[in-house]
Design a protein that fits this description.
Oligomer: single chain
Distance between the termini: 94 Å
Order of helices and strands: HEEEEEEHHEEEEEHEEEEEEEEEEH
Number of strands: 21
Strand content: 25-35%
Largest sheet: 6 strands, antiparallel, barrel
Radius of gyration: 45 Å
Length: about 400
């Protein structure tokens, strides 16, 4: 081979070697494939996360309730007579002491005048006996009358004093009887149907003139399972009457069929027995009702706050993984690894759950947990649904269910 040929082959070998070196350097630089780019680790799962919140959560029991008046009075006459006038209308709201009916009081007024006249007569007789008694005392001092004469006058005087006292009592009794002919409202409330008219004959044993039901405040009657009795009694925290009354929220329908603004009150009555046939205990709540939004006989939903979980770890129920009776969540740490952790639900409602097993501030997987495995790598990939859920997670839950 001549010198020119050997030089050509040398150049070819050099070019091939340089090309190989360049190709190896380009492949190892990290610029060729997506796996070499900064960001998600290879084979990581896209998930959305939510932060566990720390806040108080009320534990509530929900039941169907019926609105009942706290007091209902059947107004009846105290004397047998006829109705002179009716001062109210059916369905009218009346205040305590308002005039309802006036009855025929002519007979009672005559008896009152007679009793007063008898009192005046006996008072005059007493005044005369007082004068005789004082005069006989003076005559006895001058030895003009005997002690027996003075004692006789004094006995008549004492008897007359008792008779005057009896007359005064008779006058008061006649005044009371005459007062029965003016019928006034015994409490504030709404009047029902009026059963009489002017001229109607009424008596204490007859039908009531009208029924008045207290509207403000008003009561709501409902029942709860007997399993809630220890909580209602305070679990031995002391006598029930010394504890703060439990709070009650009443939900009702609005005129347009939607939900009206909730009304709040307090538990006022806990029955002293459990109904053995239904296994429930009867309760009653007391609520202010100035606008008369609640009406006797109305059906409502009652939420009774049994207790409050202080500084509870709260997360959306959508983050829970349900396996039979077990509940788990994926907790993501700083290393972007998913740790499957069992939790215990302490309280829940339709959207929120207070749990133990995680700490406030930790991040749990909200979406994307279906194909996730314990210890798997994750990266955050916000989705529209997750963004909406995270937005709603910014506000505290307003209620919680009674059971876990």
């Amino acid at each position: 081979m001549n010198t020119r040929a050997r030089m050509g082959w040398t150049v070819v070998v050099a070019v091939v070697a340089a090309g190989g070196w360049w190709w190896q350097g380009r492949g190892g630089s990290g610029e060729a494939g997506p796996a070499g780019k900064a960001g998600a680790a290879p084979h990581s799962q896209a998930v959305t996360l939510v932060t566990v919140r720390q806040q108080d959560m009320p534990v509530q029991a929900e039941a169907a309730g019926t609105v009942v008046p706290l007091n209902t009075v059947e107004v009846r006459p105290q004397v047998s007579t006829t109705v002179r006038s009716v001062a109210i209308q059916e369905g009218q709201f009346v205040h305590q002491g308002d005039l309802l009916f006036t009855l025929d009081d002519r007979s009672d007024q005559a008896n009152l005048e007679k009793a007063r006249a008898t009192l005046l007569r006996d008072q005059a007789t007493l005044a005369d006996l007082e004068r005789q008694w004082r005069r006989n005392q003076e005559l006895l001092a001058q030895n003009f009358v005997s002690q027996g004469a003075l004692d006789s006058v004094q006995a008549q005087r004492d008897a007359q004093v008792a008779l005057v006292a009896s007359d005064k009592a008779a006058v008061r009794a006649a005044e009371v009887s005459a007062g029965y002919n003016t019928v006034r409202a015994p409490l504030s409330g709404r009047a029902g149907a009026i059963a009489v008219h002017p001229g109607s004959l009424v008596s204490p044993t007859g039908d009531p003139l009208v029924t008045i039901s207290q509207i403000d405040p008003i009561g709501v009657s409902f029942t709860l399972p007997e399993a809630q009795l220890p909580t209602l009694l305070g679990d031995g925290d002391g006598p029930q009457q010394q504890r703060t009354p439990l709070g009650v929220t009443v939900l009702r329908k609005a005129a347009d069929g939607g939900e009206a603004a909730p009304m709040t009150g307090q538990l006022s009555f806990l029955d002293n027995t459990v109904d053995s046939t239904s296994g429930t205990i009867k309760l009653k709540a007391r609520l202010a009702n100035p606008a008369q939004a609640l009406w006797p006989g109305q059906y409502v939903t009652v939420r009774l706050t049994l207790r409050t979980l202080k500084d509870a770890a709260v997360l959306p129920q959508a983050a829970l993984i349900i396996k039979g009776d077990d509940r788990e969540v994926y907790v993501v740490g700083a290393d972007q690894k998913a740790d499957l952790r069992p939790v215990k639900v302490l309280n829940n409602d339709g959207a929120w759950a207070a749990v133990s097993g995680v700490k406030p501030g930790e991040q749990v997987v909200m979406e994307g947990k279906e194909n996730l495995r314990p210890g798997g790598s994750v990266h955050v990939a916000p989705a529209a649904g997750a963004a909406s859920a995270a937005s709603s997670a910014g506000s505290a839950p307003t209620r919680a269910g009674a059971g876990a």
